[in-house]
Amino acid sequence: MYEQKFAEAFRPIETPELLIRHFLPSDGHDLAELLTDPKVVYYEPYPVFSREEAIAEAEKLAESDCLFAVELKAERKVIGKLYFHHEGRCGTYELGYTVHRAYQGRGLAKAAAAALIGFAFESGSVRRIIAYSDETNTRSWNLLEHLGFRREGELRKYSYKHLDEDGQPLWQNMLIYAMLAEDAGTEVQAG
Question: Strands 128-134 and 92-99: what pairing?
């Protein structure tokens, strides 16, 4: 009934401060500032990148239809990225976000995510958006709640990324959030 139409419908999205767009190979140096920062990638499912790896990653992201650059228009600088992946289940997409540490706490992640969510629901191909947050990442799940997501559950000891001093996994509990089109005030047309 629902098809993967969002990627075809996507066009750059502007807010007063931001431009959400596809990555460009030339975004490598800005992307490196994100991906080489251990505090920024702490909760991400990948390790800290070297500068060279991050610059090369921009080339790969430029080919992606599910990762978007968040550009601060006034500085013409990529300060974050949004992940928006089709889950293949009845118009469900997963949202993720990462913002440069120097730009955190200014409402930019909220503005970027809200703009992408609005566009997604208005596209008519998205019925449900889910997001996962480590339970210790309070800023992330607070953002989801401020955006209007509902906490739907918890996955206990779901995964690990880090080890303790004895080499044992530091298990993460993941919180599951979701928003339906009708939660956002937008009805989605099936098909």
Answer: parallel
Across the strands, what pairs with 37?
none
Mean pLDDT by 10 residues, the chain (191 residues): 70 97 97 96 91 95 95 98 88 95 96 96 91 93 95 91 89 94 64 38
The tokens of 167 are what? 């080499």
Q: The tokens 């206990």 sit on which residue? A: 156
CA distance 22 to 41: 20
Residue 185: the pLDDT is 65
Q: Which residues pair with 80 in a beta bridge?
A: 70, 99
CA-nearest of 56, 91, 73 to 21 is 73
Whether the CB-CB separation of 30 and 81 falls below 8 Å is answered with no
CA–CA gap between residue 146 and residue 169 (Å, rounded): 31
Q: Helix 138-147 crosses helix 108-122 at what angle (to 10 degrees)?
A: 40
CA 99 – CA 92 distance, rounded (Å): 24
What ranges do the domains of the chain cover?
6-184
CATH 3.40.630.30 fits 6-184, yes or no: yes
Contact 102, 130 (CB under 8 A): no
Q: What is the DSSP letter of 48?
A: P
For residue 25, the 8-state DSSP code is: G
Would the pTM count as exceeding 0.70? Answer: yes
